[in-house]
Amino acid sequence: MFYSLTGKLVHMEPGMVAVECGGVAFHCSTSMQTQRNMPRIGETVTVYTHLNVREDALDLFGFATKNEMHCFKLLTGISGVGPKVALAILSEMTPEAVAMCAASGDSKSFTRANGVGPKLAQRIVLELKDKVKKMGVSGGEMPLAVGGDAGVVSASKNAEQAVQALCVLGYSQSEAAQAVAKLDSSLSTEELIRQALRGMASRF
Prior knowledge:
Blueprint: E1 4-13, E2 16-21, E3 24-29, H1 32-36, E4 44-53, E5 58-63, H2 66-76, H3 83-92, H4 95-104, H5 118-134, E6 144-145, E7 152-153, H6 157-168, H7 173-181, H8 189-201
Antiparallel strand pairs: 1-2, 1-4, 2-3, 4-5, 6-7
């Protein structure tokens, strides 16, 4: 229903921001990552939103980036992960870190978030990795096909892991492979993910 809100930041407290648009202030639940990216009170801000519809309430969630919003929706699609837990995870980890930990099988990092125990952390990793498998991304040696005349680039381990992580975040294998293949494969996995996300976000 709401894609984003652009207006004046009129209030902020732990776990929420209020954005005034046309005289109406919208209450948005947020992560600490988003709050760290907020401007001063009274300045203009854009937050990307997700409306959670329940029988007894309409809850609006706001995020500083589209990637964080998308990651929130992926996390809340996992059994046992509600909005509160998803915000706790995104308060401790960036979307890039969530994708990288899921792709590498690092469940321990998720337990830093309030409300995430070892069993839930393992379920998060398994379900996110399962999304990658369904997209046909294998863990073996996989060439990264690049469209046009750019040819085919052999994936380094970092590039391969970056492609898997981007697929965890919801991009198709071809989108992820093309974005990573344009980058320097000697970069760290996290930097490849960050630069690929920046490049893909600029297209929309």
